[in-house]
Amino acid sequence: MSSNGYAAWMAQIQQRTELALERVLPPAQIAPQRLHAAMRYAVLGGGKRVRPLLVHAAGLISQAAPARLDVAACAVELIHGYSLVHDDLPCMDDDSLRRGKPTVHVEYDEATALLVGDALQSLAFQVLAGDLAGADAAAQVSMLHLLAQAAGSRGMAGGQALDLASVGQTLSPEDLEFMHVHKTGALIRASVLLGARCGEGVDAAALAHLDRYACAAGLLFQVVDDILDCSASTATLGKTAGKDQLHDKPTYVSLLGLARAREFAAELHARARESLAALGGRAERLADLTDFIARREF
Fold first, then answer.
1. Which of 230, 176, 213 is nearest to 293 (CA)?
2. Which CATH number do you get for residue 252?
3. DSSP output for 126-169
4. 15: closest CA among 41, 37, 48, 39?
5. What is the pLDDT of residues 157-197, one digit of tens each?
6. How many independent structural domains does the chain possess?
7. Domain that holds residue 176
8. How many other C-beta atoms are found inside a 10 Å radius of the C-beta of residue 266?
9. Taking residues 253-271, what's their average pLDDT?
10. Distance between CA 192 and CA 190 in Å, rounded?
11. Among the listed ranges 103-117, 129-143, 251-265, which one has the minimum average pLDDT value?
């Protein structure tokens, strides 16, 4: 991983994202207090903020104003937060631990958790539809469309539906990739493209390189997740380890075996970095982030 200021840059973006989320989430003292407290519990003080980091890293390529990037970063992180709250529900993945603390439905209750997810999703679009620091209206509508598509039935929600339907099944490599391109990859792709669209002067060729990068990075993230689920501890993950195998869910490890899954991760890592080559030094932070995604503890 590059040592050229990456750790300091990452910490800075994580901190400014936390502060931005603090601002956009309703205060816990405002009615309905329990719902607002649970929303803040779900989003604040946890997670590596990979998607906001991708927004800001792609924004460096388009020389986007940091204030615009904060808005886009909050929007994608609120969508991500909603998806985690709903994924953890008993009717979905039924998990009791997330980011090292009880999941929302355990800390509060299932009805509150359902409403938290609903409210976080709507807040994401409220934030992105608001003040985008002077952005062109047509560009802002395009960004809203991009995020909506990434979150919906042709993106993350559709991928989750495929994931639930695949329990106990043996999927082909193509079907497994199709599922994860939607479930995990769609929001990662949206993060990169939203960051690029927050600025100016990114031509069609550069956007195509970024799109290829995002597709490889999104799949890489999932393959590494599958590896970690069977090789890392609950304490390391901050969520229950080994649940995929326990619930008989198809993963890259169950399909390929651990050694081949690691090789595939290395191939995706190389593919993602190669997609950035034409963008030069402007893509340094995206390259660093790719290393970070690939080299999480195995």
1. 213
2. 1.10.600.10
3. HHHHS--TT--HHHHHHHHHHHHHHHSTTTHHHHHHHHHHTTT-
4. 48
5. 999 999 999 998 889 999 999 999 999 999 999 999 999 99
6. 1
7. 2-295
8. 13
9. 95
10. 5
11. 129-143
